[in-house]
Amino acid sequence: MNPLAIRGLLLLAGAATAFAAGWLVNGWRLGEQMAERERDQVAAVAAANEAARLKERAMTKQAEEARNAATQREIALRRAADGARGALDGLLYDIADLRRAMPSMADDALRERADTLGKLLAECSAEYRGLAERADRHVNDVRTLREAWPK
Asked: Nearest 5°: phi and psi at 106?
């Protein structure tokens, strides 16, 4: 073979080797860049997931605190209603006592009037107590919703 042809083949082989080595090194470099981008993306997704979890925990805690506060308000409302019932019962007992003492004080018409007034008082107080309890529960529900709503 001709020395010029051998030289050309050697140059061609050298160029091909250099090209292959460059291609290989460039592939490694691009592979490393892609791996770095993938690591960054995984880290960003993990950070976003953690932030979402923390936000969900905060919202759950806020809703739970609102429910607990609503329960405490409901207990206080029930105690107040029980107190009102006790006061009413005491008043009705006093009216009954008055009615029992009336024979020596007045006639049958006075007793009838006292009975009627007692019944009216009992009916009115029951209606107002029921209305007050419903209103208090409504206020409690509204407050619970406001406190539980994410801010």
From this structure: -155, -170
